[in-house]
Specification:
Blueprint lengths: L8 H16 L8 E7 L5 E7 L13 H7 L5 H10 L6 E2 L3 E6 L3 H8 L2 E8 L4 E12 L7 H11 L5 E2 L11 H10 L3 H4 L16 H13 L22 H12 E15 L6 E7 L13 E6 L2
Antiparallel strand pairs: 1-2, 1-5, 3-7, 4-8, 5-6, 6-8, 8-9, 9-10
The structure holds flavin mononucleotide.
The site of flavin mononucleotide has 13 residues, from strand 2, strand 4 and helix 4.
Length: about 300
């Protein structure tokens, strides 16, 4: 019997704040970006803006993904079967595990690999509220990266119990971590997908060799946008056109595409309105403090603002 999903109290509050801000903002994107801090290898803070892409398990399957998985020639047949089976699980889970979508070669990825401590800071201008989410971020990268099996094992052990099927009466189809990652890239806006086909992320142009510089600039010119993969006509056998430029570019993008999965440990909320001025801290309780499997108890602390 699986434990049904009970949203963390901070999540319920954050969702309500986000909904109010989306209602008031001229464009929802304006309130769907936040700041993320990591720690550098020499112990200094590093901060940047990221997008809000929701939580683990909640993104519905992209229409092209089943055909893409079918078309993969290099995937191990057992792995492919598991991926196809798990397609039905996409969007059918709920969790409080925040998802970062990023490029494998960004500095934040190297920093998280050294030190998984992360703080997100999300300010909502239309309601004057701020949420700071603290915890440890797990990386979910391409299976071509060394150690991917071990990373999946750790995710299974540490995060999977906190992902709950929406319909708990139906025997849940388990989701597969790689399928989850693939689905996130397919759901990325076309304008951002091309970023992942550029291999020289964050490198200074002047310090590259002439050949590398030509390659770096060539990659950007070659793929300013990464559109949908074309399909073959039924006469040509149907399915995705694996010879198309977009198919190769999508495979390339997937090698650089990574997710950061944040298990939140503490949330500090600040309300900056004179009438409702206040500060609350939610702290996830240690494992042995009456928690059900896959469920966290949260202590709510009222602070002097
Ligand atoms: C509005 C906005 C949204 C962004 N969203 C993301 C994002 O979701 N993921 C990401 O990796 N970078 C995003 N960026 C770029 C980052 O802020 C940052 O410049 C880049 O990831 C490199 O950071 P790093 O080298 O410190 O890791 C965004 C930037 C802006 C201005």
């Amino acid at each position: 019997m699986t434990q049904s999903y009970i949203p963390a109290p901070w999540r319920t509050q954050l969702d309500a704040t986000l909904a109010k801000n989306i209602e008031k903002a001229p464009d929802p994107f304006m309130v769907s970006v936040l700041q993320m801090s990591t720690v550098t290898t020499d112990g200094r803070p590093a901060n940047r803006t990221i997008g809000h892409f929701g939580y683990v398990g909640e993104k519905p399957v992209h229409a092209t993904l089943p055909a893409y998985i079918e078309a993969q020639a290099d995937t191990d047949p057992d792995e492919k079967t598991a991926q196809i089976k798990s397609l039905a699980a996409l969007g059918k889970y709920r969790s409080d595990i925040f998802v970062l979508e990023t490029h494998m070669k960004t500095k934040k990825v190297a920093q998280i690999q050294e030190n998984s401590a992360v703080e997100l800071c999300w300010y909502f201008p239309y309601t004057g509220e701020q949420y700071r989410l603290r915890g440890n971020m797990h990386l979910l990268s391409s299976p071509s990266q060394a150690g991917s099996k071990e990373r999946h094992r750790i995710l299974d052990e540490q995060l999977r119990p906190f992902c709950h099927p929406v319909d708990e009466d139906v025997s849940p189809i388990p989701f597969d971590w790689e399928t989850l990652r693939l689905n996130r890239l397919f759901n990325e806006p076309i304008a951002f997908r091309s970023w992942y086909t550029w291999d020289y992320n964050g490198q200074r142009l002047e310090t590259l060799s002439e050949a590398e510089r030509a390659r770096a600039v060539g990659q950007m010119l070659d793929c300013p946008y990464l559109g949908e993969i074309p399909t073959r006509s039924p006469e040509e056998g149907g399915g995705l056109d694996t010879q198309s430029k977009e198919f190769g570019q999508t495979q390339h993008a997937l090698a650089n595409f990574a997710l950061g999965l944040l298990q939140v440990e503490e949330v500090e909320y600040f309300n900056n309105n004179p009438a409702t001025f206040g500060r609350i801290v939610y702290v996830r309780q240690p494992k042995d403090q009456g928690n059900q499997p896959g469920h966290s108890e949260w202590a709510k602390q009222t602070m002097i603002p």
